[in-house]
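Chains adopt folds. We examine one example:
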Amino acid sequence: MSANWLYQAESSDELLQEVLLLEQNWQYVFSIKEIEEQLAAHVAYLKNIDHSELNPTDRFYALLDVIFDELAFSGPGMQTIPESSLANISYCIMHRTGNYLSMSVVLAYLLKQLGFDASIAEVEEQIGLVIKLSNSELIVVDALSGGCEYLISSDDVRDSMTNEIATFAKPIPTDEIVKILLTEQKIFMLEEGFLEEALNCVETLMELLPEDPYERRDRGLVLQQLECDKWAKDDFDYFIKACPNDPMTMFLKMQMDDLHGQLETIH
């Protein structure tokens, strides 16, 4: 028996396009047209480089070198860039830098366009960019530096170890990645004081996750900072009723008492 990565990755094309469209709700710097043109230019540049004489593994390494050395994709390094920008897929495409997750998503898209089975996967309880070369060959890529870890299994590997390798990198469903990406951006925008953008982001998440009381809670927190106390109170009330045992509930009850007093004074 040999390790078999049979988990079928969902399309990185669909993932990228979905997130780009959602980001238009709060990302106003770049239009979809500008982003798609830049993305197409990256793909065209890579496709114009002839590596047809190389085997799949060497071709992958050669293309990865082009992405990092010639197209100049990289992590932020010592640059001072807001975390909300680094987490943004649109920014990553236009400026060729991002955090680990946004870079992984963009690189997965580019490599998919070049014929590689690229996916965002769970690797040792973390999220990683994984390239499946065959049923027994896997490459895990450090999306910030281009560093790689090559894994292989064969029939002479004992069964227990083979099974461990086979379950090493399970692709994460597209809807889960979208949620993680948007949640990261929401958190960073809140921390950095981009409240209107954070509100648009959390309301987008609420449309995707209509039954999630935690998104209602987060919208309440944003609305409170925007001094929309009446609407914040409604969201806090919803969360308290849905999650009475959550550690945050007691704090929000105190917030509710304050808001109630303020609203009574206003009226």
In short: Confidence is low (pLDDT under 50) at residues 1-10, 156-162. The longest strand covers residues 126-134. The beta strands are 117-123, 126-134, 137-141, 148-152, 169-171.
